[in-house]
Amino acid sequence: MPRDLESEREIIENLPQLSREPDSGATPASASMSFRDIISGAPSAADKGYFFEPDENQSKRDELHPYVQTLNVTNVDSCVALEAAAFPPHEAATKEKFEYRFSVCGELSLGMFTATPTKDAPANLQKDATLHTASSTLIAHVVSTKTTNDVVSDEDMDLPKNWQTERHSMSKAGHKEEGRTIALHSLAVLPAYQKIGLGSTILKSYVQRMQNAEIADRIVLLAHDELVPFYEKHGFEKKGKSKATYGGGNWVDMVYEFPIDDSE
């Protein structure tokens, strides 16, 4: 259940391509770029030219030296801490869900990190060591699985029982590798870094990577009514009230359809 983590006034177009490593320069992608390369931060021709429009928050973003990379099981504790800080308890994903999602389809999730040295990190991050690695701090994430549904269902939000031992479970719950729909479960930004454009930045970067990877036809998510305008500005279409009851329900189905390439 993604959350809008910036103001209505935030400029959302022409957002930057973020690199796998901090301060790395963008270079044209090779024709043989793999799916893993695309989603883990390697720049592509489609990504070239993204830049921040000058605004009052640009200097705040620049100070962070943000970069993105795919998430895996080593990031579980950091994601749990971030989720707990950004969402109410009944909406935040559990540690087991992160373990499951990163184990079976970690390539569908993206983390934004700051390259700010730990000793210079803001005080609020210093208080939570679980958010730190040796050289970077997780400040935002997008976590997803794939589904065979056209919108997010409660089964998509769940995970199979005994998934650790039954990797090929016939359960209807959880990730469906054969699905052509990406179910975006969580868009979270650390509260101290909300309202400076990071929510838009990571969402824009994520959508571009998934489109470039050509492994799905759409991205779907659940949003509360007050957040619908944020996602609409990013190209998502409101599909009406969701049947999902996760976290107490009252969700709106949002869908982003990837453009169809008629050139072939």
From TrEMBL:
Q: Where is this region: Disordered?
A: 1-34
Does the keyword Transferase feature in the UniProt annotation? yes
Q: Name one Pfam family in it.
A: Acetyltransf_10
Where does the record place the N-acetyltransferase domain?
66-259
Q: Name one GO molecular function term.
A: aralkylamine N-acetyltransferase activity
Domain of life of the source? Eukaryota
Instruction: Supply the alphabetized keyword list.
Output: Acyltransferase, Transferase
| SUPFAM superfamilies for this protein | Acyl-CoA N-acyltransferases (Nat)
Transferase listed as a keyword: yes
Which GO cellular component terms are attached? cytoplasm
Instruction: Give start-end positions of Basic and acidic residues composition bias.
Output: 1-12
Under the heading PROSITE patterns, the entry gives: GNAT (PS51186)
Protein name in the entry:
Acyl-CoA N-acyltransferase
Q: Which organism is it from?
A: Pseudovirgaria hyperparasitica
